[in-house]
What we know:
Structural class: alpha/beta
Number of domains: 2
Strand order of the largest sheet: 2-1-3-4
Order of helices and strands: EHHEHEHEHHHHHH
Strand content: 5-15%
Distance between the termini: 21 Å
Helix content: 40-55%
Amino acid sequence: MKDLIIAVADGYQEKVMEALLPRVPLSSGTRPFSYDIIKNPLHDPGSYSDSQELLRSSIKQYRYALIIFDFEGTGVEELSNHQITSAVSGLLNSNGWMDRNAVIVIEPELENWMWIDNRNVELAIGWTRPESLYDWARVKGYLEGTATKPVRPKEVLEEALKISETSKSASIYKKIASSVSYNKCEDPALKKLINQLIEWFPPDT
């Protein structure tokens, strides 16, 4: 039996998790853990409504299940993050994953994890302007006050990629996730993910 199955909503999340998960034992002190990553063919809406069916055949093959998807694009944005999380976890609990699952809903979407004030982010997107990426974002009004994340992280990142004449790709996201310390990211969903992995896979004693 493997430790963990992770169901993500798209290829971008898949590449981020491929880069992030191997770093967790070293950066957060968990024991090494085995895992597989699968994509939900119905993306964010399917992650909300159908994760229990997607993972039905995996109940006896994995100790834990982790569901990751974006808040935006679920089709139920009128609900709160907590309501969405509770609904998906409830379905998993009722379908073989009782107390063996966690649901991570990224609000508004994955790009919030990419916004970390770090030179490696600039290198990953090919940013060569004289001002830093964050200085540019503040001058443009995308970062309000002392905020470290734009309100619309996806759209602002896509504008930065356009300025850099860099095509958007999942490999860029993977490069950021593999080279920038996730401990510097203030996104609640990412913190929840790391804390859950620490709880599930504490250091060997």
